[in-house]
Amino acid sequence: MTKIVIGSDHAAFEMKEFVKELLVLQKIEVLDVGTHSADRCDYPDFATAVAKVVVDQKISGILLCGSGIGVSIVANRYKGIRAALCRSATDAEMSRKHNDANILCLGARTNSKKEIEAIIESWLTYQFEAGRHADRLEKFEKLGESL
What we know:
The chain contains six helices and five strands; from the N terminus they run βαβαβαβαβαα. Helix 1 crosses helix 5 (about 115-125), helix 2 (about 45-55) packs across helix 3 and helix 4 (about 90-95) packs parallel to helix 5 (about 115-125). A five-stranded parallel β-sheet has the order 2-1-3-5-4, sandwiched between helices. The longest helix is centred in the middle third of the chain and has 15 residues, at about 45-55. Helix content is about 45%, strand content about 15%.
């Protein structure tokens, strides 16, 4: 069974719960690091928590906030993280094939449930192509703050 860590802020709490249901239906184990309510909170805390699990457990992650921008900025500050803000299934496909994204970032206020479902399906379907893209990833690994 595949395992994915997921996290969000309050703005995306309801969408995170929807995403969890989608993943469970696909027989994916979900590790939810929060938030666990719609009470106001700070997205950097949850982006950091997801990034840490992705690095420590070598699994993929999904982050959500209102726009997806904040969580993607925070997650990408850490060494070993390749967080991709995806607004379409094509974005998700390319983030996996060319960038080997290990965290999918989504905007709960910018995409519908139907769009998010298609983005996740695409992100889970495609794998890293390596080849000419591998050299770029090697450069990524030299960047960022260690967890």
